[in-house]
Amino acid sequence: MSDKGGPVPGHEVIPTVWGRAGNIDVERGEGSWLIDRSGDRWLDYTSGIGVVNTGHAHPKIAAAIAEQATKLIHGQQNIVYHEPGLRLHERLSNVLPGGPWGVFLSNSGSEAIEAAVKLARRATKRRVILVFRGGYHGRTAQTMAMTTAKNVYRGHFEPLPGSVYSTAFPSCYRAPVAARDASKPGSGGSCAGCSCRWEEEWDLTLHTLASAEDVAAVVVEPVLGEGGYVVPPAGFLPRLRELTRELGILLIADEVQTGFGRTGKMFAVQHQNVEPDILVMAKGIASGLPLSGIIARKELLESWAPGTHGGTYGGNVVACAAALATLDVIEDEKLVENAALRGTQMLAGLKKIAAGRSAIGDVRGLGLMLALEFVKPGEGDGRAPDPDAVKRVIAEANKRKMLLLSAGAYAQVIRIIPPLVTTAEEVDLALKILEESLDAAGVKRS
Q1: What are the CB-based long-range contacts (under 8 Å, 24+) for 121-126?
Q2: Hey, how many other C-beta atoms are within 10 angstroms of the C-beta on 436?
C-alpha cells in the first residue's frame, strides 16, 4: 500500500548497519548549513563526507538537475548518446594538464576504483596491485581487499580477492622512530631526515611480497582520507612517480575524497606537479548525485575492447548535468581559491586553539581537508591514540549545532571537511565552537 502522507516513519526503518555520525532529522540544506525539522541550523563541516563541495542545494546545480529531469532521466550508455554526457566527457578530458586523456564514467567511488584496477591489469598484462597502509578505496570485494584504513571496513568478510599487497604510507607524525613536522625542511625528496622510511618499505615490499615485474599498478591517496587525513611530506609523490616509471608500474591517484578543489587545487596531485596514469574521481564531482569515473591516458583506455567493462547507470544523464553545473560553479565562484584561503585560515586557527593542549598530538591539513589527532599524554611515547577524546569533542560540537566526523585506524582523529563555499565568518564560528567543545570535553590546556 502506498504512503502518500501521514506521520514520518521512525528511525527504526533504517538498518543498524549504517554506523551513525549524527541523528538529525534534516529538512533542507543551504550552503554550509543543514536545517532540521524544528528549524534549527547546523553548521555542516562534514559536507556529506566530502561530497557537497559546492554547498547544499546550490541553486544553479538544482536548476540544472530540474531542467534535465524534465527532458530525460536515464539514457543508457550502451544504447544512446546524450548531450550532457558528451559535454562532460570532453570537459573532464581537459581538466588535467598533459594527456591526451580519456574518461570513463560510473556511479560510486568503489566502482571507479574497480574500473581503474581492471584497466591497469588489462593494459599491463600484470596482475598485482600495490596499495598504501591506511588507505581507503571502497567496500566492494575488490576494494575491501585494497582498504587498510580500519578493520571494520574489511573484517569478517574474508576471503577477499588476492594479489593485493600493502606498503607503508609516509606519516611523519607516526613515523616509527620519532614524530616529524612534514612541513619543515628535510622532509622533502624521499623523506630525507625523516624516519617514516616509506621508500625502504616500498623496496622491502618488492623483495618480499611481490616482484616488480608482476605489479600492474600502485594506488595511492594523495592525502589519506579515512586513514586520518594524513598529508605526506613534500617530494613523496614525485619520488613515487619516478619509481613507478622506472619499474613500468602504473600510478593510480585515488582522488575520490581529495578531488574537485578540496585541497586548494583542483586535484591534490597538482600540489606536487605529478601526472598519474589514471586518476579516480567521485564525491565532489556532481554535488551529491551518484557519479564517479576515471581519467586515464587515452592509450590505456583504448586497451579496453568494447564490452569488457560497463554498467547500467554509469554516466547517468541527470548526474552528468549536475556535474557540468558543478564544474561551472567551482570555476565561476572560484571555489578552489576559496578552499586554499579558508584552509589557511582554519589551519592557523586550529593550531592556535590546540596550543598547550597536550592531548592534541598533531594538527594538519591541506586546503579544506583538516584534522586534529588526539593522544593520551604520558602514555607510551606520547602518541597513544585516544578515540574517547574524539567522541567527547564531537558530542560537544553537536550540542553546539556543528557536525564533525572522526577518522583514523583507532578513530583518534577529528576530520574537518567544510563545503568549499564556506565563508571566513563561518570558519571563525567553527573555530569558536571547536574551542568551546575542547574545553567542555576536558581537553584543556596544561
Answers
A1: 121/216, 121/217, 122/303, 122/304, 122/308, 123/216, 123/250, 123/300, 123/303, 124/216, 124/217, 124/248, 124/250, 126/213, 126/214, 126/215, 126/216
A2: 16
Rounded Cα gap, residues 145 and 89, in angstroms = 30
Q: By three-state DSSP, how is residue 131 classified?
A: strand
Q: Using CA atoms in the order 252, 253, 256, 262, what is the torsion angle rounded to 10 degrees?
A: -170
Strand-pair category, 101-106 with 292-297: antiparallel
The DSSP secondary structure of 200-220, one letter per residue, reads HHHHHHHHHT--GGGEEEEEE
Longest dimension (CA), the chain: 68
Judge contact between 170 and 198, C-beta under 8 A: yes
Q: Which of 339, 361, 365, 360 is nearest to 423 (CA)?
A: 339
**Which cell numbers hold the place of 98?**
598533459
| Residue 223 CA from chain centroid, whole number | 8
Is the predicted pLDDT of residue 271 greater than 50, yes or no? Answer: yes
Closest by CA position to 104, among listed 280, 326, 343, 323 = 280
346 φ, ψ to 5°?
A: -70, -40
Strands of the sheet with 292-297, listed across from one edge: 101-106, 292-297, 278-281, 250-254, 215-220, 128-132, 164-167
Tens-place pLDDT, residues 46-95: 999 999 999 999 999 999 999 999 999 999 999 999 999 999 999 999 99
Least Cα distance to 404 among 396, 412, 414, 413 occurs for 414
Q: What letter would DSSP give residue 10?
A: P
Task: List CB contacts of 212: < 8 A, sequence separation 6 or more.
Answer: 206, 247, 248, 249
289 has a pLDDT exceeding 90: yes
How many Cβ atoms are within 10 Å of 225's Cβ, its own excluded? 28
Over pLDDT 90: what percentage of the chain?
87
What pLDDT band is residue 190 in, cutting at 50, 70 and 90? very low
What is the spatial distance between Cα 197 and Cα 48, in angstroms, rounded to a whole number? Answer: 34
Q: How far is CA 264 from CA 124, 339, 367, in A?
A: 33, 5, 5
Contact in structure between 194 and 186 (CB atoms under 8 Å): yes
Q: What is the mean pLDDT of residues 110-121?
A: 98
Residue 183 reports pLDDT greater than 60: no
CA torsion angle for 214, 120, 144, 137 (degrees, to 10)?
A: 120
Confidence of residue 172 (pLDDT cuts 50, 70, 90): confident
What tens digit of pLDDT does each residue of 375-390 get?
999 999 999 999 999 9
